[in-house]
Amino acid sequence: MFQSSDELIIGTWVPDQDGYDYRWVFKENGTIDKYDEGKVWVTYRYEINKKSSCLTPLNEGVNLYLKMTEKSESSTLPGSKIELCYELDGVTDEHLSLIYITGANYRPILFERF
Fold first, then answer.
1. What is the per-residue pLDDT for 112?
2. Which pTM does this prediction carry?
3. Which of 23, 74, 79, 114 has its CA 20 to 30 A from that of 16?
4. What's the rounded Cα separation, in Å, for the pair 103 and 78?
5. How high is the mean pLDDT of the chain?
6. Which of 87, 89, 91, 85 has its CA nearest to residue 58?
7. Strand 95-100 vs strand 23-26: parallel, antiparallel, or unpaired?
């Protein structure tokens, strides 16, 4: 059975080099909780699209893009929001690969399903 990237990304992911205290949990309601040392430290809304709203898309129209927008303004200056953009390099039942395109470092970030 074919599963879309929207379906495959749901679940708990840990970076392949960071141990289990740091993890990202994608939920069906379109939010992602980022954990550090076992506690939620930030929550974002996320969406997956073929078109990037970021300044530097790598392969727009070919690949999928993951955009995270800060859900609450608790960790930023009043009136500002954090927006993070990634190219969705690949997602399977066991692995997730993202390329952070908001900044200058375009190396993949690899995750394993927890």
1. 95
2. 0.84
3. 74
4. 23
5. 84
6. 87
7. unpaired
11-50 burial, b for 16+ CB within 10 Å, e for fewer? ebbbeeeeeeeebbbbeeeeebbebeeeeeebbbebebee
pLDDT(99) > 60? yes
Contact in structure between 67 and 54 (CB atoms under 8 Å): yes
What is the DSSP code (8-state) at residue 3?
A: -
DSSP H stretches of helix in the chain: 5-8
**CATH for 5-113?**
2.40.128
Q: Which residue has the higher pLDDT, 109 or 81?
A: 109
Tokens of 78: 């009043």
Cα(78)–Cα(73) distance, integer angstroms: 7
Q: What's the confidence (pLDDT) of residue 23?
A: 94
pLDDT digit string (tens) for 28-67? Answer: 999 999 999 989 989 999 999 988 777 555 555 568 899 9
d(CA 70, CA 101): 17
